[in-house]
Fold these 3 entries.
Entry 1:
Amino acid sequence: MSDTLSKLTYQTFQQGKSYFGLAHKTLSSRLMNLIHPTLGQKGKPIPREVLFKLQQKINQLLETDWEDAQKGVYPESLLFDNPWADFFRYYPLLCLDIPQIWERAEKQKYQEFSPEIETDGYPSYYVQNFHHQSNGYLSDDSANLYDLQVEILFNGTADPMRRRILAPLKQGLKAFDAVPPRQMRVLDVACGTGRTLKMIRAALPQASLYGVDLSPAYLRKANQQLSEIPGELPQLLQANAEELPYLNDYFHAVTSVFLFHELPAKVRQTVIEQCFRVTKPGGVFVICDSIQLSDSPEFAVTMDSFAEVFHEPYYRDYTHDDLVERLEKAGFEKIEVQVNFMSKYFIAHKPA
Ligand SMILES: C[S@@+](CC[C@H](N)C(=O)[O-])C[C@H]1O[C@@H](n2cnc3c(N)ncnc32)[C@H](O)[C@@H]1O
């Protein structure tokens, strides 16, 4: 396929995802306003000029995504990766789950779990219906719906945002040029359903990959998705990121995507310190999470709305938090910050 044609195909594919996300949200919020009018009053409407700026940021994100594939950071095929089978299988279930989500949101039930779900042994901050999700992160149904929910939430840009960790990750690994690719170890903290690990596998086909998460259901889903792709299977472990079950200085690189806004402030520091401990001297730590007020004040209204409409108990605090200060406190240096659409990236190095 010529470059122009494949770029056009990519843009059309992304536009399709965007229209789908918008259509889903418009229809479901109209229905919600009819059935639960009080919920419809939550979150301020987003002004037209902010919507315009958001569209500009999406265009920039997609351009960078395309360019990184052209530069060979990852194969072009990754741009078109979409879990189609899951989409057709689970979209109807996602719709069927919506009335329960509204009910929980209206009654402000934030810690509601089915009797068969084991909640003992998890930290209390974690036993929550984040985003009003049925059974939080603790059921197989939740794991099956999660990727689709996130893609709809971000109008199809969740994967392009996740992919922005790949260039700094590969750049950071250059510090270990003498290490054979097979001996390169990369850990993804809070790997969830394995979406980021799948991308890292495409960018680093030979590296040894590791994933850690608190949710057994999400790890089962990750194992299932990652088993379907060629290459060595990443090693997945159920553990709390506050006590990473790995040796000191073990990984050449550590990544974490969309975790920190779901942690209380004190836990954010502990997790950063753990990531520092397991990173090799000279290694890189790449965080991707939500934008913050300090560098994206023009999107304050969207951040406010996210905190209010979704159940995200630590998000507001996160938007004010100084993660650079936290990373420095843990011992990281040469910290670079980037912003792409609704995500912010912290690229930090452990002194060699
Ligand atoms: C918003 S999801 C992000 C998942 C994935 N990284 C992604 O890109 O979609 C947050 C994830 O963090 C995990 N998590 C939350 N607190 C954790 C902790 N203390 N230790 C390990 N995992 C945690 C959850 O189980 C969930 O899979």
Entry 2:
Amino acid sequence: MIKNNILVFIFLVIINNISYSASQKSELATKYKATNSINNKASLQRGAKYYVNYCSGCHSLKYMRMSTLADDLGIEDAVFSKNLLFTGKKIGETMTISMKESDAESWFNAIPPDLSLTARSKGADYIFAKLNTYYEDDSTNTGFNNVALPNTSMPNILANLQGGQKIVLDSNNNPVSLEKVSEGIYTEAEYIQLTNDITNFLVYVSEPAKLKRYSIGFWVLLFIFIFTIIAYYTKKEFWKDVH
Ligand code: HEC
């Protein structure tokens, strides 16, 4: 009996959690899907550049060593130092930033989180959705709101690139879609690529070893394949006289 009660309890906890996380996510936010692959090196290189230009003023990547980044992305140290190095840093250091938490708190009412592991904890689609679902909202401090992270205190950093969006609500005040209301510097396709590149870069940063694992995996499978052929013919040769 007690056992049964425990099982029912566990079942209820699981169901509760599933429905809780489902209700937390806005339907509209789930429509935004990141599409890049970390095997696309050109995209990772662009993503790193955009990150340093647009995000690194506020967000550190405290687990990412710049020399590892340069190696993995195939960027020469000299080129890296010139274009991507965080201000006042050496290439062997990690990508921490100099903004004081107390300053951040008073400027944004929130501390910009370190983004090293965000792609793993919250998913690539969430980052992509966050960068794509800003819309104009006069009731907030920044003048913008966000579908993926409602009432976010992060300013709409890429507003002039994307252009303005307005939210379309249904009769129950649920968000249905976002509507373009003013043009940005980038076309829609260019903006999607930009945000995919940044997302892709953050996916790589959240697990740099994945790149190596993938390339090692390829050679291991190739070895197993070739070895199978050799083993097959060796077996044939050995058993030839027996049959
Ligand atoms: C001016 C400072 C600033 C800049 C620049 C900035 N952010 Fe933010 N960001 C914030 C703040 C502050 C928060 C916390 C928002 C909140 O909790 O409401 C945040 C939150 C986030 C989150 C949500 C993290 C989480 O755990 O939910 C993501 C993802 C993010 N930023 C990505 C980016 C990316 C990518 C860029 C570059 C394109 C960027 N940010 C540029 C200030 C900034």
Entry 3:
Amino acid sequence: MPTAKQDLGALGERLVVLHCACPRCKRARTLKTLPPNFKCADVICDFCGYLGQVKASASGEGLTPPGLLLGAAWDPQKQRMDSGIYFPLFLVLVASDFGRFSIHYLSADLQMPELFLRRAPLKATARKPGWEGFRYNLDVVRDRLVLLAEGRLPRPRSASPTAQASLLAGSPS
Ligand SMILES: [Zn+2]
């Protein structure tokens, strides 16, 4: 069963696919989600091959990015940075209480090593002892984030199958 964090992540990816055109080829509705175990990216453009990462975060009012945000495993990120490889980032802020979201974009060209903060290894008592992750230090890129979209969250899962289907197909609501 997916955890609440995975649900938030999946919602973030769905919102990006629905609301964002491909930043490279400019086509609408060409971004598709990649399988959850695909490591370096979360969405791909099925026209031009553009790859992007999506990070979703719960947010009080749904518009102001947090200063720090939990990332992923440190080692692959460090190896990519050592090779000069950065991926564009869609940051999705979700304000469940208000039913609203916003999507912010950080171009790969505007990222630098300071954005990625290494975390201390997990304690011996953790589920994955010794595992090292990183946090995004969004404070250092605050003036580089671009607001791409904001709007109302899709209806919850209790919505009728028809409403869900039309939402997934991207019909105007
Ligand atoms: Zn594209």
